[in-house]
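Protein in question filed below.

…
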Amino acid sequence: MRLSSPALKVLAVATLPLALAACSSGSGTSSSDGAPSAGPSAKSAAPESPAAVLPTGTELKKALAPASYFPSGFAVDADYSRDTGDDFQPQSTKSAAKPHCADLGATGWIGLTGIDGVSFAQSSYVDDAKTTELDQEIDAYRGSAAADVMKGLAKVVTACPDYPDSDTGGKVKVTGAPTAGLGDEAYTITLTNPAWENGTTLVAARVGTAVVSVLSTEGDDNGAASGKKLTAHIVASLGKLSKQQG
């Protein structure tokens, strides 16, 4: 899980090559009452390399919104922008322990579902006053894990109806709901606190085996409109990337 925020610590992620399982084969014959032995059994298929079916971090980075997309006064924060490059990392699923709910306020919040993909790209844009941020990330997963991530978001909201805010001492209220019109499926989480001037909107949208995740505090609507708009932009870019790969 990659957690970072202008107000939160960074956990660096090493990009590890994915170790591919060796191809196995089996052979055996059987005979009964002098019947001819069976032909040689077919070798089991080698697991497909993620590179053959999934985008690398370098490719996912191209689908993120460019600097020209963001409002005037916003600039990329290089300390919170990274990707897995041309390597893949092992896909992992963590135990279903109670999530650290405060991490909903950090980039990489999608990792609270407990599933890490094989590649990712993320970047963070902050305004001049460093009070408003727009964060974007794309994670690619093997098999049905992307759909499992989306299912896990509702579980995170159930486990985190609220959490203490270390800055104000108050409680952050957490609400979530499925969202129509973004990718194959989408889910939106809203964070509010009476002590804040504006809340935070988190949007996740699945596009095939990838999940787009956005954090927004921009605007006077808890970041809802700008968060959905940024997600839609990335979803469209990711769709174009998929067609180019196909």
User: Anything to note?
Assistant: The mean pLDDT is 82. The chain is about 20% helix and 25% strand.
